[in-house]
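Morning run. Coffee first, then this:
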Amino acid sequence: MPKQKFQKYRINEIRLNLDETSEIIPKKIAGKLKISQNTIGSYEIVRQSIDARRKPKIQWVYTIDFFCSLKLNLPFAKERIYLPPKANLSKDKQIVIVGFGPCGIFAALTFAQMGYQPIVIERGKDVDARTKDVQSFWSEGKLNPDSNVQFGEGGAGAFSDGKLTTGINDMRIFKILSEFHYFGADEEILFKQKPHIGTDVLKIVVKRIREEIIRLGGKILFETKLIDFTVEGEKIKAIHLDQKGTHLTMSCDKLILAIGHSARDTFRQCLNHNVAMVQKPFSIGTRIQHPQNLINMDQYGDPNLAQKLGAAEYKLHAKSQSGRGVYTFCMCPGGEVILASSAANQIVSNGMSLHARDGQFANSALLVDVRMGDFANENPLAGVEFQEYWENKAYDLQNKYELLQSDIPSFLNSDLASVLPDFAKSAILETLPILDKKLLGFAGESALLLGPETRSSSPVRFIRDKSFQSNIKNLYPAGEGAGYAGGIMSAAVDGMKVAEQIISEIN
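And here it is:
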């Protein structure tokens, strides 16, 4: 008897009731296709999501890659294989990466795995020391401007929910998820529709990735700040650093700026060197907090289902009469609202969740579109100045590091409303009843507004060509700070793409 040949197929909409386990997936596939279960070989869960639209009948919904000995009228399974670039291993080029958030981490890891020895410059501390600084800030109001929620190993994402969702479609995504899993994240991130790591696990993961980069020959210089760079013949020649008060000059053949959206001093350095950049729209608003049980009840119809399905999430949007969009962003189930300042006398809010998402409250950003016409002038950094104005105003109202807060009935006349532009305040008030119809209780008595929320994304976009270089050659602005990403995954992808491009140039 000739051996059976198995082909790998992909099938969508395999549904399981909540009392059914994934072990019956082959049976479900066979039933849907009306074939014998014996013809189905191994399978892999590609995507898992929840369909709660027909409460109380809530179902798991799967996309499955499976092997079958029959010829089926189904699409072949897509290979999720990342093919790295070919490397020449020319090590005479000094590759420097500024910033060790997701973009810098995955740029450095790509180089190191390909045999190069990147040097990473990070103004903040390693994640353990950084966590102590953050805790000190929260408990005592002692802000370290270089080691805080925004700066340090792991970037801003290290004190967030660790969301791994993204709107982009790129072959590198599964590679990134696989690396996160290899270095300690739960296997579920490989197939969950809305994967997350949680800030507690993410800290462990980034530390292990750093150790791997070093093991492969890379260097990570913490508490080392880029203070200037030298340009000759419109090319990067050297960088100038401050390392715990000591001035260092380092030659540099390739410089990746993976600086994040809050590195305003570096933005200004770049502008002083005529690095091409333009204004970019972003958003402003508040965080909104609710009891997690309220969200669970609305989304599942039964708050107890959260024990099986996990803390419920939401994503809402509306449009005000002015045409400005109002939307929720960075929703943190079972999380908390945190103070996220990175410079003196500024108030900034953000949301954070642990992996378990088992806190009593849910929160998300409640944001309004900011347009470039809202800025005071045409300076490329006018958006930065816009953010700083409202952050400073929030601090000046109370002269201490503390989030402003208000319930919804009192919002209009609150201190919190006074540190938002009029267009944002009015758009939020106008659309809250609309959002409440989409999620019952969203604008109810238990809702609490905290803020301001000013750093949804970078207010700047660096101009770069097809090779990812700026007008200053060998300077590669990348990630969220450069205006080319909006979260952990897209930033990591951009870091990998830039690294791959540099490897191709070296070859």
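Residues 488-506 form the longest helix (19 residues). Good start to the day.
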